[in-house]
Predict the 3D structure of the following.
Amino acid sequence: MRPRRDDGDLPPELPGKCNSRKRADGPPTRCRMTAGHGTTHLGHGQCSRHGGSTQTGRAIAAKELVADVARRFGAPREIDPLLALQEEVSRTAGLIDLIEGEVNATVGPDGRPMLVETINGREGTRTTPSPLLDLHHRERRHFVAAARAALDGGVVTERDRWIADYQHRVLGLIAGIIRGLGLDPDAPEVVAVVSRCLGEFAATTSGRSELLAVPADDGDGVSW
Ligand SMILES: [Zn+2]
């Protein structure tokens, strides 16, 4: 909700309401219609009687929607700092997608995305970038900062460690199965079969092949 001048005289803004100041004789008051009533953005922004359907009104509502989503994702919980950074990168990428969707959905009379906003003030008419573009720009900067922090913090290192651990466990499992069958994991015919099977598995799991790319020597004495 946006601070307005002379709000001290007005009743408080209520969540989910239009909250526009009403021009009326008598004490100052606010519109208590549902936010976005009569517009395409029910639930956010001003109602249709208070500018909700204008270009500016639609942009404000879209910005509120994005801010609302961001706020709801901000619920606190315990999390590993590295994981938090990784999530922050993913979340910011999602938020940027959302903002881009809103930019494309917020169109002017010519049906094109509204990239600038015309503001009529006492000093005349001027154009500024749409509030959504401004938000988009800020989130992209935040995305770069979060991604850089995640890299600096060792998210990639952590991922490599996880992959190595996964490899070690799977290869240990296979060696256990071979020994359980009464075979020697180092016997040439066993090495040949296991190597071929792992190669086939890696070939059919494209992007995840690194999970089972057999290390030259993982130190467990088994020579796959
Ligand atoms: Zn209203």
